[in-house]
Amino acid sequence: MANVLVYAETRGSALRKVALEAVSAARSLADSTGGGEVHALVAGAAGVAAAAAQLGAHGADVVLTAESPALASFAREAIAATLAERARQGSYRAVVLGFSAQGRDLGPRVAAKLDAPIAADVVAIEAAGDALSVKHPGYANKVILTLAISGAPVVLSVRPGAFGATESPRSARTENVQLSADPGAERVTVKEVVEGAKGRPDLGEAEVIVAGGRGLKAAENFALVEALADAFGNAAVGATRAVTDDGWRPHSDQIGQTGRQVSPRLYVALGISGAIQHLAGMRTSGTIVAVNKDKDAPIFKVADYGIVGDVLEVLPALTAAVAAARSAGH
Amino acid sequence: MGVSTVKIAVCIKRTPDSESRFRIAASGATIDESGLKFDIDDFAGYAVEAALQINEKSGGGETVVLAVGPDTVQESLRKAMSMGADRAVQLKADAVPADGLAVARALAAELTSGGFDLVLFGKHAFDTSAGVVGTATAELLGLPCVTAVSQLDVANGRGSARRELEGAAELVEFPLPAVVTIDEGVARPRYPSLKGIMAAKKKPLETKPAQLGPVRVTVQKAELPPERAAGRIVGEGAAAVPELVRLLQTEAKVL
Ligand SMILES: Cc1cc2nc3c(=O)[nH]c(=O)nc-3n(C[C@H](O)[C@H](O)[C@H](O)COP(=O)(O)OP(=O)(O)OC[C@H]3O[C@@H](n4cnc5c(N)ncnc54)[C@H](O)[C@@H]3O)c2cc1C
Ligand SMILES: Nc1ncnc2c1ncn2[C@@H]1O[C@H](COP(=O)(O)O)[C@@H](O)[C@H]1O
Fold first, then answer.
1. Is A172 inside any structural domain?
2. Are the CB atoms for A228 and A315 separated by under 8 Å?
3. Distance B121 CA to ligand 2 centre (A)
4. Distances in Å between the alpha carbon of A261 and those of A285, B133, B154?
5. Where residue B229 falls among pLDDT bands split at 50, 70, 90?
6. Total tally of structural domains belonging to chain B
7. Could you give the angle at the alpha carbon of A194 between the alpha carbons of A191 and A197, nearest 5°?
8. What is the CA radius of gyration of chain B?
9. Which pLDDT does position A252 carry in this prediction?
10. Which domain holds residue A163?
11. Cβ–Cβ pairs < 8 A, chains A and B
12. Which of A148, A253, A309, B247 is 20 to 30 A from A96 via CA?
């Protein structure tokens, strides 16, 4: 029997989707190694105990809560210290985090503190007895690596969206834990958080992404892309590097090898050529639609459906048709 | 305002050109490297550029580049020196392990007595796509660490940086010495000048054994992902929109 420790990350006081996915991944790891417990740490400024039911529903046996007003901004050092301390006390097989901005930052810290091997951005976990192996897309998603990891505990960060948030209900016990370091004494201090687009989901969590490239011709024309995102309901807006380089959109919107790696159910590429570095960030999307005036654009090689034409002419028609289809469906 | 000078270390990896078409080697556990072009990894290249710009601005300081790996990494170290780095250290290993903590151990062992104000890394390397080595090294050195930085300034013993998060950005401050991992946005790497290339030949490149410690993560298998099935052109212009929407509803079932 081997227990698994999870970092269940929050934004504001709400659990993030990747937190539930990490708990689900931990649940199946614990089950496949003889049915250990899943312990999920949730840390925040206030009200984190409310997360317990949701974590329990996804397979957590114990919810460890840490509250402090100083956790209002991300206290990387205090959280890493707390996770490592807890991992040292229990006999955990693994520490599981999301491969999100927070998890990317915490995972290697925890691994180094524990002198534990780490595998990042994992899309599958296989445990057989003492042997653990994971799948991880390397080379910007161009080569799938199977990594063998020896030792315990191991630190694993799971790719958002790769493990479903599967229900596996149990009534989790809640336990308060002391933070192992003062979150008010972080050496790296957050001066300001600049919020991105209001009212849109994060690119990593969006079911639908509409992305624009240089074919949109001007920053103003992104209003048409925004309108299509609105028509889909809860869509996020992305961009190519050509667009972020020109300052039409912020760098945080960039999708690709040096931007965000996304895998929505639907990806709509508008005026995007489909350079290999862009494809590296979105080729694992469920369905890909492309609109480009050049019928030989490489984006059409990965697109399930393509329209050859002027994106500025197609966009208003597409927005109207999507809005109509959605309102008819309701 | 008095500008203090800083001593900067940049850890660089040598990786294959990301535009390459990859094939799997006969062993099934690695890519076939024949015919591939290798260079300083993209994010590590941004880190080199960031270091050079910081020291150019202050008009002093030192930039040292380090790489763990076989002798082929010397080419990347020389290139960084031709861009302007002052000296280089190769931490020699037969191969770079897939275990990021082992690489971090070797780098930390070398960096610990170096007296660096700033240690820069790429956000992640192209081949591992992991983003482990920089942060793990910081932890081993006991230094503050700021990850995924898209803007970086240092002055008077402190650093300030912008980090790109998911749908937001964070502006942070930190004391030096510190470790920073560099995202895109800081600076595109310059091309070495002819003068730089000549000068680099005379710059010191020291080689020492890498103290990797135990390697506990190994690549068992490497595979190419399945190709996407060929799609189709639905039609031309706005006239094709109704058919596209119909397919999204009935065939792809995403609408
Ligand atoms: C190290 C490195 C990292 C990189 N990382 C990334 C990354 O993370 N993300 C990324 O996106 N790129 C990245 N790039 C850049 C990438 O190589 C391409 O340059 C970029 O993706 C091109 O963006 P684009 O498709 O918007 O522009 P373009 O390549 O200029 O394509 C514009 C497209 O729009 C079409 N078009 C023009 N007018 C119209 C119209 N009226 N209607 C319809 N279509 C029209 C054209 O036919 C063309 O296909 C990277 C490059 C390097 C070297
Ligand atoms: N073998 C190496 N030698 C020197 N630096 C490295 C090496 N491997 C990784 N790094 C650094 O660590 C960063 C992150 O690598 P990774 O954790 O493998 O994604 C890279 O961008 C480099 O700055």
1. yes
2. yes
3. 7
4. 10, 20, 30
5. confident
6. 1
7. 170
8. 22
9. 87
10. 3-185
11. 283
12. A253
Domain containing B16 — which CATH number?
3.40.50.620
Q: Are residues A274 and A127 part of one domain?
A: no
Separation of B122 CA from ligand 2 center, angstroms?
A: 7
| Contact of A145 with B219, CB cutoff 8 Å | yes
At B110, the pLDDT band (50, 70, 90 cuts) reads very high
CA distance A115 to A93: 14
Q: Which residues of chain A have pLDDT under 70?
A: 1, 197, 330
Per-residue pLDDT band for B2 (boundaries 50, 70, 90) equals very low
CA dist., res. B240 & res. B234, Å (int) = 6
Give the Cα separation of B4 and A62 in Å (integer). Answer: 50
Query: Is the per-residue pLDDT at B1 higher than 50?
Result: no
Strand order in the sheet with B145-155: A189-195, B168-175, B158-164, B145-155, B178-182, B118-122, B7-11, B62-69, B87-92, B205-209
Do B134 and B122 form a contact (C-beta atoms < 8 A)? yes
Q: Measured between CB atoms, which of B128, B150, B166 is closest to A100?
A: B166
The verdict on a CB contact (< 8 Å) between B230 and A301 is yes
Q: B67 - beta bridge partners?
A: B90
A175: CATH:
3.40.50.620
Q: What are phi and psi for residue A199, nearest 5 degrees?
A: 70, 10
Say if residues B78 and B68 touch (Cβ distance below 8 Å). no
pTM over 0.80: yes
For residue A280, being part of any structural domain is answered with yes
What would the two tokens of residue A236 be? 């996020």
Are A64 and A175 a contacting pair, CB within 8 Å?
yes
Domain range for B40 is 7-209
Q: Quote the tokens at residue A185.
A: 């004494």
d(CA B1, CA A100): 39
**Which residue reads 């010191």 in tokens?**
B204
Which member of B42, B168, B225 has the closest CB to residue A193?
B168
Q: State the complex-level ipTM.
A: 0.93
Beta bridge partners of A127: A132
CATH at A272: 3.40.50.1220
pLDDT value, residue A1: 64
Task: Name the least confident of A145-149, A168-172, B172-176, B234-238.
Answer: A168-172
B178-182 and B145-155 strand pairing: parallel
